[in-house]
Amino acid sequence: MTVAVPPPDTVRILGERLAAGAAENDRTGAFPHRHIAALHEAGLLALTVPQRLGGGGAGLARAAQTVGAIGTGDPAAALVLAMTLLQHGLIHREGTPWPRALADAVGREAVARGALINALRVEPDLGTPARGGLPATIAHRDGAGWRITGRKIYSTGAPGLAYGLVFARTDEPEPRVGNWLVPFDAPGLRIEESWDHLGLRASGSHDVVFEDVAVPGDHAVDLRPPEGWRRPDPLQQAWSCTLLAALYDGVARAAQAWFVHFLNTRAPGSLGAPLASLPRFHEAVGENERLFSVNARLVASLATETDGGHPPAPQEAGFVKLTVTENAIQAVQRVSELVGNAALSRKNPLERHLRDVLCARIHWPQGDAVRSAAGRAALGA
């Protein structure tokens, strides 16, 4: 079986088609199983799986374009898609610590059945490990294999995942820290439906609990001394920042499209013409278009450099993610302020776009971390 990569226009149309279901899933908080199935049918879940495994063989630029297009219709599904594309963009690269046979098996499952994978890193006490500290999740040696015990929170896509890449530490006298590939049908793994947030409500980012979950020895795919995790991986940072930037830019573009339609169809009696005829709205729409143009160039530049084998320093990728997402937030907030009460009415999609785009500030790397790291470097601290 080989994935046929759909052209960009087909992906754009699919994103538009998912919008109606996204609104309903947002209201109920239901995981978008049907939308994920539609992404699989379109070949998108295996987009970044190598062609030798039957995948699309796409790089970061095409992945970002796809996530952005799906994000205009269903940001929750687009986030789940982004996490899977990210992992396949990393585990099949040259120099990966993954056993080739294991990475190939995961890739083939994405092609055949749309198997989702995501990294599970955040914990109740630790928070995000990117800010330092050892995970409380423990991997204990059991003969040739391992047993995993712990809890992960904010596990995006949990109801649909086939695999979790679990960040844990060993219980050895000198602990190692790393990632274990855990199948989600393993005995002892359970999902606690804890996700009830303001935005991206359908992303299924629930708690995942591991109670003495057995995994094979070769599923410990990247173990290092704790200090080996202190510096971010430029490739991982580039993929993550690019895809998140594209996702939230897509949300803002959906808000802009709704705003343009609103201005062209809303004609107050006192004006006798559509709101689109007023100069102040010309300026507002134009300012958002400026932000989108800057976003497109930033995302394309970061993706092109990365696909060319030259991912920038993690700090540069963080700048792109921060700038693009803040531009997206600014664009949606501008639209909301100008529309007025209708912007916050739940019968219109704009209030959902506003809630969703604000989630950009929560995704790592967060603004304070990006600025602080850059400041320390500039000051030689």
UniProtKB/TrEMBL annotation:
It comes from Methylorubrum populi (strain ATCC BAA-705 / NCIMB 13946 / BJ001). The keyword Flavoprotein applies. GO terms for molecular function: flavin adenine dinucleotide binding; oxidoreductase activity, acting on the CH-CH group of donors. CDD domains: ACAD. Residues 13-97 form the Acyl-CoA dehydrogenase/oxidase N-terminal domain. Residues 123-213 form the Acyl-CoA oxidase/dehydrogenase middle domain. PANTHER family: ISOBUTYRYL-COA DEHYDROGENASE, ISOBUTYRYL-COA DEHYDROGENASE, MITOCHONDRIAL. InterPro entries: Acyl-CoA_DH_C (IPR013107), Acyl-CoA_Oxase/DH_mid-dom (IPR006091), Acyl-CoA_Oxase/DH_mid-dom_sf (IPR046373), AcylCo_DH-like_C (IPR036250), AcylCoA_DH/ox_N (IPR013786), AcylCoA_DH/ox_N_sf (IPR037069), AcylCoA_DH/oxidase_NM_dom_sf (IPR009100), Mito_Isobutyryl-CoADH (IPR052547). Residues 244-363 form the Acyl-CoA dehydrogenase C-terminal domain. It holds the Pfam family Acyl-CoA_dh_M. This is Acyl-CoA dehydrogenase domain protein. SUPFAM superfamilies: Acyl-CoA dehydrogenase C-terminal domain-like, Acyl-CoA dehydrogenase NM domain-like. The lineage of its organism: Bacteria, Pseudomonadati, Pseudomonadota, Alphaproteobacteria, Hyphomicrobiales. Keywords: Flavoprotein, Oxidoreductase.
